[in-house]
Amino acid sequence: MNESGNRARYETRLARVLDHIYDHLDEPLDIERLAEIAYLSPYHWHRIYQAMYGETVATTVRRLRLHRAAGYLANGSMSIAEIAERSGYSSLQSFSRTFRAVFGVPPAQYRKRGTHSRFRPALSGDDQMTMREVVIRYVEPVEVLSIDHVGPYMQIGKAFDGLFGWLAKHNLLAAELRMIGIYYDDPGVVEEEALRSKAGVLLPHPLQVAVTVSPPVSVAHLKGGEYAVLRHKGPYSDMRAAYEWLYGTWLVQSGREAADAPVFEEYLNSPKDTAPADLVTEICLPLA
């Protein structure tokens, strides 16, 4: 078996581990069980995981749990103590300390005055959003390689991990990849478990020509035309408030209408090597 084939074999095994982690975030981290899922030695598999993904499996689990916890804080009313327990922390103090180290503020302060609050006029004060923070941009129609995701939008990272695993197996990873999430449903009217989205990448032109698409990857089409683009800086958990402002304030006051096409997001950096407060996302709303 050649070098790329060997890597593909490991990618397939570790992809099963990532799927299990996403689906069992509420459960204790069981190294032995993850080794079984990977069909690798419990003495060595986590070293392989770290070498291939650039972080330990414990770091992955912590990052995903804190990402979900921030969503609970920004968008729900679950008590902080319950959030801490669901995130695998034995004490509220331990959870608060870790959350503050990652997000820069303790959980209670994040809930009240996180970056999501600037999209809500009653809470935002001097930081209230203004119409000029949205720019109109013409976007060329493009095709992106994508994997379908059904379920909470906050868990689309599972599909992105699967997509990057597929790209690695086909020697298509490149520094110039553009990461794009396409969102088809309104979480206000569609049940969370039924929300449809796609995790996608736009490859550099030389690589696009050479791609032969195979399941679970497919080609998704992004409509060309004018888009209202809101650049959001901060945790992904704040995105719901950003959408509420974009649709409920900007679109209504702009005099424009939304086109019959899905909204998409472009991620300008990665949560794997970027602090939540420094994540930059462009929300792109198609206009008629």
Number of strands: 8
Q: Enter the CATH topology name of the largest domain.
A: Multidrug-efflux Transporter 1 Regulator Bmrr, Chain A
Low-confidence stretches: 122-127
Helix content: 40-55%
Secondary-structure element series: HHHHHHHHEEHEEHEEHEE
Q: Biggest β-sheet, characterized?
A: 8 strands, antiparallel
- Quote the average pLDDT: 86
Query: What is the topology, as strand order, of the major beta sheet?
Result: 1-6-8-7-3-4-2-5
- The geometry reads as globular
Name the structural class.
Answer: alpha+beta
CATH superfamily of the largest domain: Regulatory factor, effector binding domain
Keywords: DNA-binding, Transcription, Transcription regulation
GO molecular function, one term: DNA-binding transcription factor activity
Pfam family, one: GyrI-like
Protein name: DNA gyrase inhibitor
Verbal overview:
One of its GO terms (molecular function) is DNA-binding transcription factor activity. Pfam families: GyrI-like (PF06445), HTH_18 (PF12833). InterPro entries: AraC_E-bd, GyrI-like, Homeodomain-like_sf, HTH_AraC, HTH_AraC-typ_CS, Reg_factor_effector_dom_sf, SmbC-like, Tscrpt_reg_AraC-type_HTH. This is DNA gyrase inhibitor. This protein is of the alpha+beta class. It contains 11 helices and 8 strands. The protein is globular, with a radius of gyration of 20 Å. About 2% of the residues have low confidence.
